[in-house]
Amino acid sequence: MTRQPHKTSPPVSIQQEIFLRAHHRHHHRITLGRFFLLLFFLGLWETAARLGWIDSFFFSSPSGILKYLGQMLVDHSFFAHTGVTLFETIASFFLVTVLSLLAATLLWYQNSLSEILEPYLVVLNALPKSALAPLLIVWLGTGTNTIIVAGISVAVFGSIISLYTGFCQVDPEMCKLIYTLGGSRKDALTKVILPSSVPLILSSMKVNIGLSLVGVIIGEFLAARRGLGYLIIYGSQVFQLNMVITSIIILCAIAMVFYKLIQSAEHYYKKKY
Amino acid sequence: MQPLLSLRDVSYSYHNLKGETPALSHINLQISEGSFVAVVGPSGCGKSTLLSIIAGLLSPEDGEVLYRGLSSKDYCADTALKIGYMLQRDHLFEWRTVYQNVILGLELTHGLTKENTDYVLKLLEDYGLSGFKDKKPSELSGGMRQRAALIRTMAVHPDLLLLDEPFSALDFQTRLSVSADIANIIRQTGKTALLITHDLSEAITLADRVIVLSKRPAGVKREMEIQYEISREDPLAVRGTTAYQTYFNQLWEVLTDDKTTA
Which residues of A touch B109 (CB under 8 A)? Predict the structure, then answer.
């Protein structure tokens, strides 16, 4: 909501005005600080590379990265590689979200099932998923499927555990209310557990998108001919550090965009309820 | 005449690995249609367990509950024989509007007919909530929330209302007026009510009959008929009568006696 100091709201006191001004000044200072930190870092990097303090063959440089990025845009490899990674990440994120919701629902529905599966889930969640990657390659071959499965495997177990734990923490009195009104356990699920868990689901999605990206990059390291993960590994093997660092920066941008998207979904939800 | 609800020798215990905790022991109760009964007793004596058993959420380990002559398995299956249960806290869902909250029971029992929703709208109107029907529950005051919770309970046309300390979350002033309000609504509609409370004043102001439970495991210790010569509409007037004082003292004696003998 926007603040409207005119007409509708009562006149603002001087103290409030001072507070607001100080708040805005602080806010601007933080933004400026962030911007200058980036500028300083890039400037230092560029200078260091040009003056020969660091070897730009190994460390690349902002101008080298820009040049490489321009070249990628011209020969369309930017879209091909970024597109592949994006598609794989979105696919595995989507599947993680659906699978973990289904699994957590099932576990909540069937108490004994969750008791049986609990130790397995904990172990699978603790297992370093990169250890599974070679196995996935043998089973599924190299390619998109393997990479999507790798992305899922990194995120799905933690997501199931956190959703299920959240479902169990919903006030049992709320479910009791459903039963007193003649509802069943299914009604408790659809009318209480799921709607009250929307904030939890959104926050677990925030974690999942990052983890899916991790899994997809691991997958691309090992089993891809396209994608940013492939570019990073390939670039490092042929000593094309511009390629490696450019890919990493694109990854940063992707991660940020995803995070912001889910955050705005969260804001939208908070505003509505 | 056959009572609306009767409990015969009902017992219930909670079990865990450390042992069993008896909550109710051989409860015998009869509630006739149209009466307003209050149940008081020391805290933690199993009052809420009693309501859960009557509502059919728990089944008694021993004894039987008869509602209109049917045992609890049968009356829970029969959707026409509804028991309304008002919990301690209102639990209005924040993700629904006030209106969507009060029709929850109709939604669950597939009773969203024009007739029923009209009834709900009329209740909202009667209880001064029609202007708030599209608001979020958090925008209502404590008393309004409690009235919304009552409408949610009444929407399914229950014959028997179980009230589990529904006023305990309110501050004293609101509590006094809301409890009187709700009791008046219940009397006007001719519903039968079973109110659980730990507030003796509330019990003797609102109810026709007060049942005192003993310490855990709860059994019926005393039953007391409450009658006033004046109308009950004004809770403060009722509290000013000498009859009220007498009832209060009697009830107090019964309860404290429990403490000294135990």
Answer: 181-182
